[in-house]
Amino acid sequence: MITATGLTKHFDSFQALKGINLNIxxxxxxxxxxxxxxxxxxTINILAGFSxxxxxxxxxxxxxxxxxxxxxxxxxxxxxxxxxxxxxMTGREILLYLxxxxxxxxxxxxxxxxxxxxxxxxxxxxxxxxxSRGMKQRLGMxxxxxxxxxxxxxxxxxxxxxxxxxxxxxxxxxxxxxxGKTVFFSTHILSDVERVCDRVGILSDGRMxxxxxxxxxxxxxxDSMYEISFTGPCPEDLMARLRHIPxxxxxxxxxxxxTIAVDEPxxxxxxxxxxxxxxxxxxxxxxTRKASLEEIFIKEVGKHAV
Length: 306
Ligand SMILES: Nc1ncnc2c1ncn2[C@@H]1O[C@H](COP(=O)(O)OP(=O)(O)O)[C@@H](O)[C@H]1O
Ligand SMILES: [Mg+2]
Prior knowledge:
This protein is of the alpha/beta class and 306 residues long. The chain has helices spanning 40-47, 91-98, 106-117, 133-144, 163-178, 190-196, 214-220, 238-243, 267-278, 293-303; strands at residues 2-11, 14-24, 29-33, 55-60, 63-64, 77-79, 151-155, 182-187, 199-204, 207-213, 225-231, 248-253, 257-262, 282-289. Helix 2 packs across helix 3 and helix 4 (133-144) packs parallel to helix 5 (163-178).
């Protein structure tokens, strides 16, 4: 549904995208992760046909982007980072306005269905100016679905919402997946990705630093954290010495725990254990645990930091 090769974007002398490759299959829910400023919206604006790449090739929904003159020609559903609506119109009026290319009564039926789907049925005659952020976001998703596209590109659909609003949006994304739609969405909230995505790509400073099926990513990072509980003081130089062990990525500690992120358990674990045993630390327990998506994210982004 989306193929991007060597996507590059310059804003004058600033390079926001540094050669991005993407391959999104039909029916996938793809989470496009990255910190603020990583280049997510820049990528999405290009994929949705609103901005031109400086270099690189892109095929979206079967269309080569350099041949597309108007974003509407792509026939995709798009939700911008901050959807804007005429505040004096009601939710239903907004959708009717956007459905101007549809025949009646198909438009009325479709709008009724979408308002119910987005849980806006009872608010449909209220002015959008009074809608909560979550309601506006759900209205934006209904608008993106108006012409029943197979591919949806959503820019941070849930990021600005409270937990309940986020849950509602994520539920809609899961429902789209069940309908067989392809969803490409950006977020900087890791738990959103864990809840709905088949595959994730991590963007950092205009580069893709990792791309994997979510399950594989979480599986591969099982046992990649050592957790050591201890009593008494932690010797001052211990953290630095642990950081020097080959294969150790990160070391953190609080009053009672040391956590050590490693590339792979095994020999690195032996070296950690040997160092701890020779130190004055009083160890209560030593074990591995599964890394959370957040820890994986920090590790991957950290590896590529310049
Ligand atoms: N129109 C623009 N002109 C200049 N710089 C821009 C423009 N749009 C985005 N940028 C810069 O490109 C980088 C990526 O921005 P963006 O794609 O919006 O990041 P994200 O959506 O991941 O938060 C940022 O450093 C941002 O300041
Ligand atoms: Mg953005």
